[in-house]
Amino acid sequence: MMENSKEVTIYDIAQRLDLSPSTVSKALNDDPTISKKTRKRITETAAGMGYRSNFFAKNLRQQSTLTIGVIVHELNSGFTTPVLSGIEGAASEGGYGMIVADSAGSREKEVDNARSFFQRRVDGVIAVPGAGSLEHFRPFTDRGVPLVFLDRADSFAGSTSVVADNVACGMMATLHLIEQGCRRIVHLTPGAGDNVYGQRYEGYWKALARKKIAAEKSLLIIAEPTEEASEAAARKILALTPVPDAVFAANDMAAAVCIRVFQERGLRVPQDIAVVGFGNEIIGKLMRPTLTTINYPAKEMGDTAARILINHLQGNGEIDKVTTTSMRAELVVRQSSLRKG
Amino acid sequence: MMENSKEVTIYDIAQRLDLSPSTVSKALNDDPTISKKTRKRITETAAGMGYRSNFFAKNLRQQSTLTIGVIVHELNSGFTTPVLSGIEGAASEGGYGMIVADSAGSREKEVDNARSFFQRRVDGVIAVPGAGSLEHFRPFTDRGVPLVFLDRADSFAGSTSVVADNVACGMMATLHLIEQGCRRIVHLTPGAGDNVYGQRYEGYWKALARKKIAAEKSLLIIAEPTEEASEAAARKILALTPVPDAVFAANDMAAAVCIRVFQERGLRVPQDIAVVGFGNEIIGKLMRPTLTTINYPAKEMGDTAARILINHLQGNGEIDKVTTTSMRAELVVRQSSLRKG
DNA sequence: ATGAAAGCGCTAACAG
DNA sequence: CTGTTAGCGCTTTCAT
Q1: pLDDT score for B31
Q2: CB-CB: which of A5, A84, A99 is closest to B97?
Q3: Which of residues 282-301 of B touch A (CB under 8 A)?
Q4: Angstroms from A207 CA to nearest CA on chain B
Q5: CATH level 3 topology of A166-297+331-337
Q6: How far is it, in rounded angstroms, from Cα A63 to Cα A66?
Q7: pLDDT for residue B241
Q8: A277 CA: distance to closest CA in chain B (Å)
């Protein structure tokens, strides 16, 4: 095993070429005050000697880590994956590394992760927080470390948010169903609290209100986004009287399960009951009928959040001016809701 | 905006308490030679002053970054997500951060990412490489930076691999179909080269050989894992004469598309044609018939890779002894293949 | 039990 | 165009 044959430093290079370390440093950083010729000599011997700059010595001087920290409340999810992909793309393009911490649904871990990133001195933070207070992020804002929240729009001390317009999403889906002639529209959601789900629900009833349709409390059905709970919810929906003529589900999996249960009970989708999902998961294209759904711009949100952060870090200080960036989602109309034309 | 009100250093703490910086340093690192009383005084004022240790000064001294680099060839994928989740869990448990770089299918980016991590001096690397040479990882092995490959078993200079036993997977799936009475079994795969797909194919024909069934070349169908290509492949399968009585697809999406096409053509699954997928994606539980598939232990693989790496970094040098860790995958039998009992 | 001093590798004034 | 010098904040002998 070839072991660490000792790291090469700029001193080694300087000695070898009979130059000073600072000359070497400048040359390696493309300082224009170094003659082309020496610069070339230096870069070449550096490469030859297997030199790599010491990231930490550099950071120690420059007080910057070229690293952005990403805290997600659930890494293993269909939303988080494209978000990370979007962030990574923009970050690496801007010369930043992305360090990821997963809170795995635990608030305690989220607090820990914030602390850990603070210690690590990331240059900026993007967080997809779970529910609850955001106070554990205060050290960042206090120290001027820029902070962007994703998918959560609470205003929080000097921070910025990137969200999809969930109210608009809910409205779009519901209006579409109304246009298709539906009147008794169920909203199936994991919860209608103070978060994206609540906003989708708000969009739902705003759409009903606009069309002068009374919102019935019994048409709001709460169910965890698991297969079992969704099945139970579907049965609950069929037990309502009169039977609803549409379901707007807050995620595609729940919508798919509902459709299956409806079909097994002999109902036709969309003729007897129309269904709209949320999230544009791959399953929506594979099932029959294909699923009408909201295309949630997760990757674009990640990309945007990273760009805002990096622009700010590079001194194009958007972050102080923009408070919330709302990304446009779109309705993807497929078979499960099309009752006309 | 509260701006950087100047970072607190151990010197500030020392001055405030009329102690020396080294005492403060030791106290903060729980050095037992510092009396309990002073230690307490120090930790308390440190907290009070909002001190955070300077990660970089620390690293500069200790020549370690407490960071492991993860290079994936495709971040936005159903395999990578649980892998990252597994790595993150083990890493954070061991006190390490995880920095992620996505090669997004580009070899060039993969090479860049390797270089970038080398510069950043990650303590260790986990790579899920694409196809092709692994030479760009040589700097790590040369410098004694431990390196673990995931889902790819090439032996490479002093590195270690964590894989699922893909040959066994292919064999398991195929034997199961044979036991169900199938004889003309198609293997549908994105390619049977020198990678996991090739190994699954190897398992397929080994199973056939063991059962004395002739492997026909026409039963190997190559198709990209997209919806369109899978549909075309399904039609191709139905055009074979005699029509096959089973399909073993190398991913669940392709299997789902096949089943849909078969059903649309009036075939019954599994009675007329049985189908086994690969990957245990969520869709397999939602569709009808439910999909028999291989449960690929992605998260466990990530977890294992990270543990091996971290054990090594902490001096429990497994990495030199273990060359390849093969994780057990399992067959999940559901409706799409069950023709007996 | 505490302190003094050296140095990790690099950069940025400033001087030549 | 190149060199000198002085730290960045921390840890770690070695003294006391």
Answers
A1: 86
A2: A99
A3: 282-283, 285-288, 299
A4: 30
A5: Rossmann fold (3.40.50)
A6: 10
A7: 93
A8: 15
Q: Which CATH number fits domain B10-49: 1.10.1060, 1.10.260, 2.40.10, 1.10.1740?
A: 1.10.260
Question: What is the pLDDT averaged over residues A147-174?
Answer: 90
What is the structure's pLDDT at B4?
43
Candidates A101, A158, A253; nearest CB to B1: A158
Residue ranges of chain B whose pLDDT lies below 50: 1-4
Residue ranges of the alpha helices (H) in A33-165?
Answer: 36-49, 55-62, 80-93, 107-120, 138-142
* Contact positions of strand C to protein Cβ (< 7 A): 1-5, 7-13
pLDDT by residue (tens digit) across B255-298? 999 999 999 999 999 999 999 999 999 899 999 999 999 999 99
CATH 3.40.50.2300 domain range(s) in chain A = 60-164+299-327, 166-297+331-337
Å from the A53 CA to the D2 C1':
21
**CA distances in angstroms from A320 to A147, A312, A323, B207, listed in the order given:** 11, 9, 7, 64
Q: Which spans in chain A are helix H?
A: 10-17, 21-28, 36-49, 55-62, 80-93, 107-120, 138-142, 166-179, 196-210, 227-239, 252-264, 283-286, 298-313
- pLDDT tens digits, A46-98: 989 888 889 889 888 888 888 999 999 999 988 999 999 999 999 999 999 99
DSSP H or E run through B301: helix B298-313
What local confidence, expressed as pLDDT, does residue B272 receive?
97
> Are A65 and B77 an interchain contact pair (Cβ–Cβ within 8 Å)?
no
- 3.30.710.10, 3.10.150.10, 3.40.50.2300, 3.30.950.10: CATH of B60-164+299-327: 3.40.50.2300
